[in-house]
Amino acid sequence: MAKHHFQTEVNRLLDILIYSLYSHREIFLRELVSNASDALDKLKILTLTDDAYKGLDFAPRIDISFDKDKALLTVSDTGIGMNDEDLVEHLGTIAKSGTREFLSRLSGDEKKDSELIGQFGVGFYSAFMVADRVEVISKKAGEEQAWRWVSDGKGEYEIDKAKREGHGTSIVLHLKEDAKEFASEWRIREIVKRYSNHIAFPIYLSYEDDKGNKKEEQVNSAQALWRRSKSELEHKDYVEFYKNISGDDEEPLFYLHIKAEGTMEYSSLLFVPRRAPFDMFSADYRPGIRLYVKRVFITEDDKELLPQYLRFLRGIIDSEDLPLNVSREMLQEHRILANIRNATVKRFLQECQRVAKEEPEKYLEFIRQYNKPLKEGLYSDFAHKDLLVDLVRFKSTSAAGYTSLAEYVERINNKEQKAIYYISGGDEAVLRNAPVLEAYKKKNVEVLIMDDEIDELIVPLIGKYKDYELKAVNTSKAEDEFINDEEKKKKAEEGKTVAEKIKKILGDEVKDVIASVRLEDSPACIVLDEFTPSLKMQELLKAMGQDALSDIKPILEINTEHPVIKRIEQADDELAKDMAHILLDQAILLAGQKPKDSVGFAKRLAKIMEKI
Ligand SMILES: Nc1ncnc2c1ncn2[C@@H]1O[C@H](COP(=O)(O)OP(=O)(O)OP(=O)(O)O)[C@@H](O)[C@H]1O
């Protein structure tokens, strides 16, 4: 008998599962059934594609049995099975980074943590929530020797030779005193119905009826839900299926069931989780789409099944036209799959459009979770640009919450307005209080608040929306279209002397100082050349090592009507120097950035305060 120690992380996981999480214990059965189903899938594809397995006697099924008196519960499958090496590798260590992530995200709140189990699929180990001893008897398909793995979940496990009729795996749970309720026909029926009804293989339950007769009955519907016609299916069927494949305890926000017939024959079933998956913004996120070919499971970790920006979707794609033995490497280049992918994306984005129109509240929830990935789509999925442009949302000075570009255009009530105005390059609060907005506010012109980092990247890609160009208000070029040239000239003329005075003082620190036609209450603001990235973007680019950017200098726009500017105009050289520097620094601060020389800024401020 060979003794082994669990990897440290397994021990931690087991401790948590055994001692902390009680509220959702019943999901252990879902996890074991799902593993059994995976094992059947793996063998099924081998029997269809690999000559070595073609002659194998394969009757795929999952069996659940229990013994009330001995407090035993067994889940068996006729799947691929495991040999001794597999047992060590799969049931003694944690190979998936997801599980490590799970451990690091535990909050101590039992309900939340137990929901995480589903999301991360810590799978097999959840058996220890209800059992104080677990035996795994397994025989790998194509091998002679069977093996037995046994553990009480306390640091060690043993592996030994064993006997088993056919290939597959049996998991025997020695139920804890307080978990004996699970050795019950009705409890098992109920849990299987709730979580595993649509597992594609039959699940049989063995039990004794009232008269003590042994019975065996299939307890799940075992149909590929996505192949059934939409009219046959109810909302609850979809919800159950979603919970099953995603491990999410909440209902999906919405879903889409596509059944395409004709030149391309496929079914897709896509679910939008109510809350964004925890790893949505991590590079090694777990993809949520399973690929089937003629109802045979092929893969679930291919990141190319849908474009990356739709990585939050959960669901399946089942093709009738792909060959069963399609290799993973080939998948990405497969024309049929590319067509399915394209059609599916289009249908999904159209569905989003429908939700936006018909169920605005739901769409708002969707946007709260997925606005950013959709914006990524604008950046990466040119083919669906037109749909995506209408789906993304922005904050605005004129509407609470989020607004679409279409809504903005509808609100334009001034014939002279030729552009959609926006301000970008900082936090929402900074942008909303930006001095350049003053004139727009006064004239009732709406400005979009683009506070997502990605906004700056996508605006140039949108370019124009319905003949309206997107224009940043914090660039020197975005002079207000509502102020005529005469007025501009007059202002520039009036402000010339003081602008030159300030420019002389600031020298190299600014590109230019100009009299503003847009400022109302503030003395000055920073603007940039039309094609210069915002200060915020510059900061980001610099952090990424783009040094050339350090030469970009801001343009200082001054409000010549403002008392501060008038004071500078009249001040002696020394006072004017301090005031001009402070003027620039406070404009930089208002743009959400730090002054270049914060010590100098503080000293000058103190010096001036002394004089008051
Ligand atoms: N019934 C089984 N038959 C064959 N292999 C199994 C069985 N149960 C578990 N395994 C093996 O043990 C591994 C670990 O299982 P576990 O449930 O912990 O995670 P997982 O199934 O890989 O992940 P997830 O639960 O997220 O799908 C599986 O990947 C599989 O290789």
From TrEMBL:
Keyword Iron: no
Keywords annotated in UniProt: ATP-binding, Chaperone, Cytoplasm, Nucleotide-binding, Stress response
Region entry C, spans: 540-612
Gene3D superfamilies xref list: 3.30.230.80, 3.40.50.11260, Heat shock protein 90, C-terminal domain, Histidine kinase-like ATPase, C-terminal domain
A Pfam family hit: HATPase_c_3
Subcellular location: Cytoplasm
Domain Histidine kinase/HSP90-like ATPase as annotated: residue spans: 24-179
Region annotation (A) ranges: 1-328
Entries under CDD domains matching the protein: HATPase_Hsp90-like (cd16927)
Keyword set includes Aminoacyl-tRNA synthetase: no
Function description: Molecular chaperone. Has ATPase activity.
PANTHER family: HEAT SHOCK PROTEIN 90 FAMILY MEMBER (PTHR11528)
NCBIfam families associated with the record: PRK05218.1
Subunit structure: Homodimer.
Family statement: Belongs to the heat shock protein 90 family.
Official protein name in the record: Chaperone protein HtpG
Organism, as annotated: Rarispira pelagica
